[in-house]
Amino acid sequence: MQPMVLQDTPALAIDNVTKTYTQWQRSGKAKDIIKNMFRPDKRVVTALDHVSLTINPGEFVAYAGANGAGKSTTIKILSGILLPTQGRVSVLGMDPLRDRIPLMRRVGILFGQRTELWWDHPVITSFEWKKEVWNIPDEIYQRNLKMVTQLLDLTDILKTFARELSLGQRMRADIAMLLLHGPDLIFLDEPTLGLDVLAKQQMIHFLKKINKEQKTTVVVTSHDMDDLEEMAQRVVLLNKGTIAFDGNFDELRDALGGFYRIEITTSPKEAPLSLPGMKLLRSEHGSHEYEFDRKIFPIHRVLGNLSEFPQILDVEIKKAPIEDVVANLYLSWKDK
Ligand SMILES: Nc1ncnc2c1ncn2[C@@H]1O[C@H](COP(=O)(O)OP(=O)(O)OP(=O)(O)O)[C@@H](O)[C@H]1O
Question: Count of alpha carbons within 13 Å of 92, Cβ hemisphere only?
Answer without folding.
Answer: 28
